[in-house]
């Protein structure tokens, strides 16, 4: 993994971890992390910065975080707290994480983008079905979770629905996937039947256009 890929992975992990915080608290975390990794000096110790730009950034972030203790130990504690939260503001349910290292274009296999085009899903529920089918049948992924489905949406730049409600709806309203074990999602018989119907529609449409 090169430096750019490491940066992207770190950014996505931070974005997911901070998604449940209010804006003012996000800024406080930025300050604590900057102190922890010695990017800037703690509040009250700005003389250690020779760079005037870094000194000014230190002052601004310190002002934002006036009600926090700007020590490295507290930075560690704040980081741990963010990691422990991992829950949405409503319902206390953990939001899915982006799996930056997951390969959706494995060598010698059909890519997720090509696979989805075979079915042309026109709703989030159909997307959930197709994504789960791809992970099961192509990548042979074990332990398919909401993280995997969420990552599929992100990879294809699709509008992301509400998690985990979208998976609950796919089960309760359509009966296409088994969600009894949220860390082991799978397509059931009714889902496979609908996949066949979706594929037929795409083939018939293609024949009509080409005919």
Characterize the biggest β-sheet: 2 strands, antiparallel
pLDDT under 50 segments (min length 5)?
A: 43-48, 65-91
The mean pLDDT is: 78
* Structural class by secondary-structure content: mainly alpha
User: Termini, distance in Å?
Assistant: 47 Å
Radius of gyration: 22 Å
Main-sheet strand order equals 1-2
Sequence of secondary-structure elements: HHHHHHHHEEH
Overall 3D form? elongated
Strand content: under 5%
Helix content: 55-70%
Question: Can you count the beta strands?
Answer: 2
Can you describe this structure?
- It is a single chain.
- The chain has nine helices and two strands.
- It is mostly helical.
- A two-stranded antiparallel ribbon has the order 1-2.
- Helix 2 packs across helix 4 (72-85).
- Residues 43-48 and 65-91 have low confidence and may be disordered.
